[in-house]
Amino acid sequence: MAEKIEQIDFIWEGIDKNRKKNKGELSAVSELVAKRELSRQGYRVTKIRKKPKPLFSARSKPITPGDIAVFARQLATMLQAGVALVQSFDIIGKGHENPSMQALLLGIKTDIESGDTLAEALKKRPVYFDELFCNLVESGEQAGVLEGLLDKIATYKEKTESMKKKIKKALTYPIAVLVVAFIVTAILLLFVVPVFEDLFQSFGADLPSFTRMVINMSKWLQEWWWIVLGSVIAFFYVFSYFKKRSHAFNHFLDRVLLQIPVVGLIINKSAVARFSRTLSTMSAAGVPLVEALQSVAGACGNIIYAEAVLKMREEVAMGQRLQFAMQQVNLWPHMVQQMVAIGEESGSIDAMLSKVADFYEEEVDNLVDNLSSLMEPIIMVILGILVGGLIVAMYLPIFKMGSAIG
Question: Mean pLDDT across the stretch 123-150?
Fold first, then answer.
């Protein structure tokens, strides 16, 4: 696939039209393509070779959605400042710290120089530029307002990425703490409890029930730890396998997530915010509603909402108003439906949806903050039960012997 082809740096020497010797560097997918490009520029190549990589060169990092958001803002700023498109890609690409992103941008620049439009060059790389991004760029090119559309894309990307980061941060922190807590508990059961067990056997005293239970857990884990570890690895492997390959599993997972207290509310409001922000951006760009809804479905971030949007698209394609289509899927909050109805009546649906997106993004921010505040005491209680319980179980016999001696 085109998006996976890597650009190779070449060092070349050649003679120009005035028979003067020249040399330089060029990025291309192969030596043949590099020679053709230099020939097109008027050079007769006498020598060409791959550029050697430095011994301690910067390691390539994967390209993230955040990188694409920053690129969109940089390109919008460059074009608004009057810099030519090809020159903008050259400046942004060569100035990027990530070699992967640099290769991507310089590859797009090469395609544009070869005669492709920006939208056509982006569509060759669907891994990084989704249908929404490409459609908006294409609309901007056709209408002659590319810099304005890129500014809207940049704003949209920045807001959606900011919301994703907040949600991910709110969910990652408690999960990470709980994983560490279970690892510490396993270490205590495997290595610390057996030391206390030997100590208690030397005393020859009867142990409290709670202490005996913990020692039995320790013995079981020492004997069957490989089953526990294998089960955990197998669970994550199976989960990852079906998450990547099974639509039915993802459908079930997304439906379950929507039902979880607090977390489900965040996901619901986040999906509404993404729907509103995406449709607002595409409507402002002049993209037809039926075509826009196709891209909006993929931007919701949840299969349940994506399927609802596709059903709405079918209704709208048959002539139904968007508000009535939203009512029929019975998923959207009443406020959203009313704002859409007002927007349709007044011809300002993009402005109404932008206000809805602002409202729900703020709601998500508040819920994420509340979730963080709520999770802290819950995490402390779980840590206290796991680690504190083991410590109490080990010291109970010592306290019992102390009171007996006293």
Answer: 85
